[in-house]
Design goal:
Strand content of chain A: 15-25%
Shape of chain B: globular
Number of strands of chain B: 15
CATH topology of the largest domain in chain A: Pyruvate-ferredoxin Oxidoreductase, domain 3
Largest sheet of chain A: 6 strands, mixed
Number of domains of chain A: 2
Distance between the termini of chain A: 46 Å
Structural class of chain A: alpha/beta
Chains: A alpha/beta, B alpha/beta, C alpha/beta
CATH superfamily of the largest domain in chain B: Thiamin diphosphate (ThDP)-binding fold, Pyr/PP domains
Helix content of chain B: 40-55%
Oligomer: heterotrimer
Helix content of chain A: 25-40%
CATH topology of the largest domain in chain B: Rossmann fold
Radius of gyration of chain A: 23 Å
Order of helices and strands of chain A: EHEEEEHEHHHHEHEEHEH
Strand order of the largest sheet of chain A: 2-3-1-4-5-6
Largest interface: A-C, 45 and 50 residues
Radius of gyration of chain B: 22 Å
Number of strands of chain A: 10
Largest sheet of chain B: 6 strands, mixed
Low-confidence stretches of chain A: none
């Protein structure tokens, strides 16, 4: 059985990508299971989807802990702990990353011995990577080696047909280009042996102890501890204040920021909390003197890494 | 007939469509909502000749479903979890009206704490309502069971509403290959709805669902419903046989997988049972005689089927994806009562609780359940019920509790 | 006459610039409901219990995280006002019996979406007002069942496309006038607010805080995924809702309705509608003038009526 996991952000079309691959497998005669994983997360937040394909009906269900192929639509998710991109990855796992950096850099950075392939990033705002799903799926189909160009094309038409001819054409082009790009690596994804009942790791079951309801009721005794959740990781665009033009007005940005992620310093200047700014850009749109502008988060981070001020 | 990839929700909607449903009272709730969205869209595009109305609550939704059924149209509705519970008064009520309709429930764990992923406490809370219950483990089964549910409920020997249950996420949002029956074939199988004398008509006045005073008439009406539900067993077997003849897919009241020569048997309901199936295959490869029983029908309870299928087995492990506080697994209790006193019943009947709120059950855990059951057989001792819960899960909860600062109370810091 | 003190909030500079509600919540980027809530919370403060009904904001507090500095109780979709009743009554008992000192008292606040407020929860809300319960009620109104993917609710405006009204004319019904339904109960206070008019919002919450009894607030909550617009437009769309007269800012007190912000020159509703994907079918493939005019007429009729009653008042 093939086990494939897609990682992306809410809004990047990972559900559609997984469905295109699922349908392509299905058209190829496979039994298939595909599903997105929804949680409480919204647009920009890490999400994943999975596909299973086998020649016989599939009994396994739920999350894929060990994948044969991991597809990362957005390389900025790799270091995000909650995204779980590297969960269960071993030397057998093939990783496909949408990234400008080389496979060698990723192998070294992640200290993995398996195969890594990259697809070049084409646009700056990652929330707007409308075709990334099709691109990744095209490349994945070739890496799997069991899906024909025809099945891939037909799957795209079936899954995106409702969105109109132009959308289908654009996605077809992206997917088939990526498909051809991976020609040399066709079929490099392999499946794993079935888990044997003869030799398995026993689950470390535990007896749940009785605990006083003071502890065991679902109550939170902390105040405003949601600040420990870094929703800044959802951001694909970063608002940056140009203090030379900031008029220190009456803090329009601070009041309008839906998340309350802009506070005002003792000097009376607004200060954006990048740990929590989700990148909605309301402040950019509303700043009276237009002193806040948007830059791609990638670019901002790269500049930060260089030690410069974004 | 075409085979395509459908989610469990999509399959349920197709079932309602192919059954030529007239009326669909609705109310959105995760993870059911896609069912009513799909039906609504088909109605908007004239692909389906039905009327849908969004009520302001599930209590109203089930009331209007029952009332429309009592007026003589074919009714379908769907809900989940908190919605099923909010409608609970009306579940009991409309079942007593003896007007059939089909309700799909997409299982999701119950509050508190409020959550999104599945277990079976929601559907089991409706166990004693008078609705019959069919439980599914694949998307195909969801579609097929919806068709069969109309036949079952509308049969004159039964005439009760029926719930078709599927698990949230694991089926509701998961696509699998589903054969969509040909419309004509489906219509022929389900048949036109004949409401018999269930109606409100100017020419033939009727007072339905009236009150009774005194235990005698009350007992009579209640017990008649029980007898009708029990008739459901034989009627279901007939319908399943006919369905298999027409469509080539067999849905016995209890799915029996590799049990003929099995010494140990897993018993579980719902989509996680396919995981148990996988485990059975792996255990068999390792030379262990293990099988699986999965009740599709929970109400009426196929007690005799269980007695026959489990006669002479050495050990049974019931894996309940639910918990009755202060008692344990519901299916385990039900099975124990069905097997008690039967001469050939297995002596070893173990209880495992797992998969609460969508918690995964790993293949290794099934292997271990088998090992524990085997040991119990050898030692002749039944161990206490076991929650499938690992050390690392408890460690993770400890971390969450630290963030939630539960220790503040523990230390008496707050008074 | 109800005594209301002069407002502290005269202009935007008077609004707090550090915020009490914690960041890090899972609300969507650009959420108009969260924008209103954090402004409301700045005024109410942490001596409060938020009693929540099922909706998007149920996910504000997901174990082990909460954005609240004060307290929270999640109840169910239908009955948050009854939850508020229990908390209020119990606090009163504790105060009366001197089991807690007066400084331990808190404001009891119901927080619900429009799905609950306009529909399933209306009966419990009516009951709470009828019993003159001393509480604040905040409805964040994004005009549909947002948390399940925006199906139409009792708050959905005419012609809006939702997940359950995808036909060419959108939702056939009309938005329920919850303000008037509430006002008919003669509670202490009823007001409409929006996060994009923060001074108006702060004054109203301040006023509500100064009163006793049921104090009922509806906040229109522009919703990027549900209304289908880019998150950065969130504030602009809210402002257009006010400028076009689609969302009248008003309050009810002592049997009288007062408009707190009357758009001097109302912009056409078209300017509000065309920014939102949920109304795109009114403009593409061709303009549905009849439907747009129908919506415009409703708004015009409303304000004509307002003008009439206002001029009557003056006489």
């Amino acid at each position: 059985m093939y086990r494939i996991r897609f990682h992306g952000r809410g809004g990047q079309g990972m559900k559609t990508a997984s469905r295109i691959l699922g349908t392509a497998f299905f058209l190829q005669g496979y039994e298939v299971q595909d599903a997105p994983r929804y949680g409480a997360e919204r647009r920009g937040a890490p999400i994943f989807a999975y596909v299973r394909a086998d020649e016989t009906p599939i009994n396994e269900r739920g999350i894929i802990t060990q994948a044969d192929l991991v597809i990362v639509a957005d390389d900025s998710l790799v270091p995000v702990p909650g995204a779980g991109v590297l969960a269960g990855v071993d030397k057998h796992t093939v990783i496909l990353i949408n990234s400008d950096e080389s496979p060698e850099v990723w192998k070294q950075r992640l200290n993995i011995s398996g195969k890594v392939f990259t697809l070049p990033v084409e646009t700056e705002d990652r929330a707007e990577l409308r075709f990334i799903g099709a691109t990744c799926t095209g490349a994945a189909a070739k890496l799997l080696g069991v899906i024909t160009r025809e099945s891939l094309s037909q799957a795209i038409e079936e899954e995106l047909g409702d969105l109109g001819h132009a959308v289908v054409e654009k996605n077809l082009h992206k997917a088939l280009t990526a498909f051809d790009l991976m020609k040399k690596h066709a079929g490099c994804v392999s499946t794993m042996e079935k888990t044997s009942a003869a030799n398995y790791t026993r689950p470390a079951w535990v007896e749940l102890p009785f605990e006083d309801a003071r502890i065991s009721a679902p109550s939170i005794h902390a105040a405003a501890n949601s600040v420990q959740v870094k929703t800044g990781l959802w951001r694909t665009q970063r608002p940056v204040i140009d203090y030379e033009h900031c008029s220190g007005c009456w803090w329009v940005c601070s009041t309008f920021c839906p998340d309350g992620a802009i506070n005002v310093t003792e000097q009376g200047l607004p200060d954006i909390d990048y740990d929590h700014c989700k990148g909605c850009m309301v402040c950019v749109a509303q700043c009276p003197p237009h002193a806040i502008h948007a830059i791609a988060e990638e670019v901002a981070q790269a500049e930060e890494a260089k030690g410069g001020q974004a | 007939m075409k085979r395509k990839l459908l989610t469990g929700n999509g399959a349920a909607a197709w079932g309602a469509r192919l059954a030529a449903t007239d009326y669909i009272p609705a109310f959105p709730i995760t993870p059911q909502t896609e069912i009513i969205e799909a039906l609504g869209n088909w109605i908007d595009t004239d692909e389906m000749d039905a009327r849908m109305v969004t009520l302001e609550s599930e209590h109203s939704m089930i009331t209007s479903a029952g009332a429309a059924a009592a007026t003589g149209v074919r009714v379908f509705s769907a809900t989940s979890s908190q919605g099923l519970l909010y409608g609970m008064e009306m579940l009991y009520t409309v079942a007593g009206w003896r007007a059939p309709f089909v309700l799909v429930n997409v299982s999701r764990g119950l509050s508190s704490p409020i959550t999104l992923e599945p277990d079976h406490n929601d559907i089991l809370a409706a166990r004693d309502s008078g609705f019959l219950q069919i439980h599914c483990s694949t998307c195909q089964e969801v579609l097929d069971s919806t068709l069969m549910a109309f036949r079952l409920g509308e049969d004159p020997r039964v005439r009760l509403p029926v719930i078709v249950n599927l698990d949230g996420f694991y089926l509701s949002f998961t696509r699998e290959p589903v054969e969509i029956p040909d419309e004509t074939a489906a219509r022929q199988f389900v048949g036109d709805y004949d409401p018999e004398n269930i109606r409100f008509r100017a020419s033939s006045p009727v007072s339905q669902a009236v009150a009774v005073l005194g235990g005698s008439p009350y007992s009579y009406f209640r017990y008649e419903s029980h007898l009708a539900a029990q008739n459901g067993l034989a009627v279901y077997d007939e319908i399943a046989t006919e369905f298999a003849e027409r469509f080539g897919r067999s849905y016995t009241a209890i799915e029996s997988y590799r049990t003929d020569d099995a010494e140990l048997v897993f018993v579980m309901m719902g989509s996680f049972a396919t995981k148990a199936r996988e485990a059975v295959d792996r255990l068999r490869e390792n030379g262990q005689a293990v099988g699986l029983l999965r009740p599709r029908l929970l109400r009426p309870f196929p007690a005799q089927h269980f007695q026959q299928l489990l006669a002479g087995k050495k050990g049974v492990a019931v894996i309940d994806q639910n918990i009755s506080m202060g008692m344990g697994g519901v299916l385990h209790s039900e099975l124990a009562s069905a097997l008690y006193g039967q001469p050939e019943s297995p002596r070893i009947l173990l209880s495992f609780i797992g998969g609460l709120g969508g918690r995964d059950i790993s293949l290794e855990e099934f292997f271990e359940i088998s090992a524990v059951t085997q040991r119990a057989v050898e030692e002749g001792q039944v161990p206490p019920p076991r929650l499938l819960y690992t050390e690392s899960e408890l460690r993770e909860v400890r971390k969450l509790q630290a963030v939630a600062k539960v220790e503040r109370d523990e230390l008496g810091e707050k008074k | 006459m109800t005594e209301v003190k002069a407002t502290f909030y005269r202009r935007m500079k008077d609004l707090p610039s550090t915020h009490l509600l914690g960041t890090g919540t899972p609300m969507c980027s650009g959420c108009g409901g969260l924008e209103a809530l954090h402004q409301v919370y700045d005024v109410i403060g942490e001596k409060s219990v938020f009693v929540n009904a099922a909706g998007c904001m149920t996910l504000l507090s997901v174990y082990p995280f909460t954005p609240f500095r004060g307290s929270w109780l999640y109840t169910a979709m239908a009955s948050a006002p009854a939850g508020a009743q229990g908390v209020r009554d119990a606090l009163d008992i504790l105060l009366e019996k001197k089991r807690i000192p007066p400084e331990e008292n808190m404001e009891v606040v119901v927080l619900t979406g429009d799905g609950s407020a306009y529909g399933m929860g209306l009966s419990a809300t009516s009951g709470a007002m009828e019993r003159n319960l001393d509480f604040l009620y905040i409805c964040y109104d994004n005009e549909g069942y947002g948390n399940t993917g925006q199906q139409y609710s009792g708050a959905t405006p005419h012609a809006a496309k939702t997940a359950t009204s995808k036909g060419p004319l959108g939702f056939p019904g009309f938005k329920k006038d919850l303000f008037s339904i509430w006002a008919a109960h003669k509670p202490a206070y009823v007001a409409t607010v929006i996060g994009t008019e923060p001074v108006d919002l702060a004054r109203k919450i301040e006023k509500a805080r100064s009163l006793k009894g049921p104090r009922m607030i509806i906040a229109l909550a522009p919703c990027p995924p549900g209304w289908d617009f880019d998150p950065k437009e969130s504030v602009e769309i809210g402002k257009l809702a006010v400028k076009s007269g689609v969302w009248p800012l008003k309050e009810y007190i002592d049997g009288k309705v007062t408009h707190t912000k009357i758009p001097r020159q109302r912009i056409p509703v078209e300017d509000y509608l065309k920014h939102q994907g949920r109304f795109a079918h009114l403009f593409e493939p061709q303009c549905n003038d009849a439907l747009i005019n129908e919506i415009q007429k409703k708004v015009d009729d409303y304000w004509d009526e307002v003008q009439k009653t206002t001029s009557l008042d003056k006489e």
